[in-house]
Amino acid sequence: MEDKQVLTVTPDVHWVGVLDPDLIRFDVVMETKFGTTYNSYFIDADKKALVDTVKEPFWPVFLEKLKQLTDPAEIQYIIVNHTEPDHSGCLPQMLKAAPNATVVGSGNAVRYLRDQLGVEFSHLIVKDGDKLSLGNKTLTFIGAPNLHWPDTIFTWLEEDKLLFTCDAFGCHFSHPVMFDDTVGDFSEAFTFYFNVILKPYSKFVVKAIAKIASLPVYAICTGHGPILRKDWKKYVDLSGQLAAAALELPKKNRVLIAYVSAYRNTASMAERIADGIREAGAGLEVDMFDMEGVPMAEVERRVEEAGAVIVGSPIINQNILLQVYQLFAIMNPIRDRGKLAGAFGSYGWSAEFMKSMETNLLNLKLNFIDKGVFVRFTPHENELRECLLYGQLFGEKMLEEMAKCAG
Ligand SMILES: Cc1cc2nc3c(=O)[nH]c(=O)nc-3n(C[C@H](O)[C@H](O)[C@H](O)COP(=O)(O)O)c2cc1C
Ligand SMILES: [Fe+2]
Ligand SMILES: [Fe+2]
After folding, report:
1. Handedness of CA 370, 372, 373, 376 (dihedral sign)
2. What is the pLDDT, as a whole number, of residue 1?
3. Domain-located, residue 2
4. Whose Cα sits closest to atom 12 in ligand 1?
5. How far is the CA of 82 from the centre of ligand 2 (A)?
6. For residues 6 and 62, what is the distance between their CA atoms, to the nearest angstrom?
7. d(CA 252, CA 219)
8. Ligand 1 atom closest to Cα of residue 313
């Protein structure tokens, strides 16, 4: 079906976004089982305004849609709630089609757009609480930084009681009818989107929700997926609950020991390190597992829950193994900064690469303690004792960290 439709949100506000039902993966990192939409809204006020644009390849269909409602040259303001190119990608063409338009965004948004566009453009920097009159309608801007880039704002259209939130409260879910009460169940997509895109910024989700709590909202106009006109409160509350649950993590007393092992040498070391940690304190929990064959989403869930991480790998062909690199790829300093970290493994003749586990953990801003424990081939009594002592030392450090937090 050709995507030509525009939708009426309120008599003067229209959805002019585009559907991308066949998208398989978003931003490289995120599967999109239900496709997505890039939502843009046209406000037909005395001074015409557009809220966000769409991803660049969709420019022709986006322009067609806009032309159904207005002469694009008459648009006076383009509100940029967030500058990620899935929303700002059509801005260069849009500025040509609307040569008198002023781009409205946060200071960060304007800075990022300068780099993205490579040319100067007419702009208005807005701060939290600033208002902009469109003649018969008024916009108020609400700072919502780090949802999920530092540039993010929400835009409140007072007369129509519409809140434009871009990525917040959105999800990757494509359905031509676009409204939460008509698209069917999209809860799986909603929670998945929250978990991948917003959860690392849960602290900021909670702050943003507090700012909008008292607004007499009619609908939340999201940047992806359904427009929330019926159950917007349910999705705001759910986001708040998911954020609050995320802020409970990680469990400071839990250590993840994640390893791979071809001949169980590294595995035996893992077991002794775990024993040492348990000996250090009865309150310490060890989550130990072999990563081979375990889906990365599962590994990530376990990283998220752990207050400390110890990584183990053997050396194969002068390198540590793919699963260990994948583990490093799913870790990030936003969530994992400061967690206690350690490394261990077995090698045959070239130990030098073992050091790269330490380097990776340090680059990820974890708190790498001691120097790790590495054994040539099979760990026997002495080496296993070394592992036990390493575990005890690690456990003691965990207890110290926990005492610091409690104190
Ligand atoms: C296919 C293969 C390649 C290996 N390449 C290296 C190597 O380049 N350097 C090295 O120090 N050890 C190498 N080893 C030896 C292993 O690191 C050693 O056997 C280690 O004890 C395996 O630990 P694991 O039982 O935890 O897998 C290799 C072993 C295998 C099976
Ligand atoms: Fe984004
Ligand atoms: Fe987005």
Report:
1. negative
2. 55
3. no
4. 348
5. 7
6. 10
7. 39
8. 26
